[in-house]
User: Fold this.
Amino acid sequence: MSRWSPQPAPDEPDGLILFDGVCVFCSRWVRFVIDRDPERRFRFIAIQSEPGRVLAARFGIDPEAPQTNAVVWSGRIFFNSDAGLTPLGALTATRPLGVLKAVPRGVRDPVYDLIARNRYAIFGRTETCMVPSADDRARFLM
Assistant:
């Protein structure tokens, strides 16, 4: 079993997305999900926040140098490409993209890892975590 295989997470709320809050690409991903989630099923927590650091460490993610985002869904926590594809499959607007989970993780995750390793160089990095709008602030755990 891979280090980033899905794991049980029965104590975590479904729809919780753990993300790198200083990564421009990751923050855009969060905005993408928010814009396509009128039911507000997903909530967000930056790895750099204290609760985010605790959650990351609990599941083996180094909060100082995160290598993956994560999402809790159906009592399990998903990492790497699964963390991106799980919300896509759950959101009505992007549900057809969920079929990409049928591609083996052994094919998907190397692409994810390549982007993750180079995300700051390609997309940039900010000095502070993204600040949600007033309308979205309640969806963020601080």
About this structure: The longest helix spans residues 105-123. The longest strand covers residues 16-19.
